[in-house]
């Protein structure tokens, strides 16, 4: 039985005070979170340390990104060992906004995965096709190519990988993949992982992301291969995010 995960990706939103308030609102309701759901939030880098210091026994604070390099003259970058040094042990990588807006290639993302695993970190590894790729029926091919970054992970470390399927056309658009579309792709991803990681693939959590809201979360999360969600916009409102967490229970 895979434990569901609901993760909030705050992206580049909110002031310091907004982020503290949001985190404190979530903490004040954490006793209402279902026992069988892991909750994560990914605030901007700048707020990670203070949210960790506030702390929560139910909400894990994770990073939105990390550098593909280990250290040195890379102005503006944050390395995995820096994250580790403030007790962060999980990061998102390969988000479509990083791939598309910042031009991160499959090999950049593979390097980030390697960096994270070298520090024994958990990885929320994102994949997702663009609208034209779905319309031209290339979505399975595209996702399979993106999965290359985790096909070479040492099997002993594969339990550190969480996959997030986020169709680009559903991110921030209000258009959600139907539960059937999500299930179809999640089952495909799991079948591809099974080819490489045999039994481990059945333990891998595969999250859905893309306009998850309180009113569609329960149906999405009820699909056999949907193990929770990676939530953007609706994670910025404590009441909505809490409803989504409860929908996973
Ligand atoms: P939205 O929930 O705003 O569509 O964003 C999804 C996402 O990109 C989470 O990483």
Describe this structure in words.
This protein is 39% helix and 15% strand. It is an alpha/beta fold and 249 residues long. The chain has one domain (4-66, 76-247): Alpha-Beta Barrel (TIM Barrel). The chain has an 8-stranded parallel sheet.
Structural class: alpha/beta
The largest pleated sheet is described as: 8 strands, parallel
Bound molecules: 1,3-dihydroxyacetonephosphate
- Tell me the β content: 15-25%
CATH topology category name: TIM Barrel
> Looking at the structure, what is the overall shape?
globular
Termini separation comes to 13 Å
Total E-strand runs: 8
Look at the structure and name the CATH superfamily. Answer: Aldolase class I
How many domains, in number, for the residues?
1
The CATH class assignment is Alpha Beta
Oligomer: single chain
**Helicity level:** 25-40%
Radius of gyration based on Cα positions? 17 Å
The assigned CATH architecture is Alpha-Beta Barrel
N to C succession of SSEs: EHEHEHEHHEHHHEHEHEH
Give the mean pLDDT: 97
* Strand order of the biggest β-sheet: 3-2-1-8-7-6-5-4
Q: Which stretches are poorly predicted, pLDDT < 50 over at least 5 residues?
A: none
How are the elements arranged and paired?
Blueprint: E1 4-9, H1 16-28, E2 37-42, H2 45-54, E3 59-61, H3 80-85, E4 90-93, H4 96-100, H5 106-118, E5 122-127, H6 131-135, H7 139-146, H8 148-151, E6 161-165, H9 179-197, E7 206-209, H10 217-221, E8 228-231, H11 238-247
Parallel strand pairs: 1-2, 1-8, 2-3, 4-5, 5-6, 6-7, 7-8
Helix pairs in contact: 1-2, 1-11
The protein binds 1,3-dihydroxyacetonephosphate.
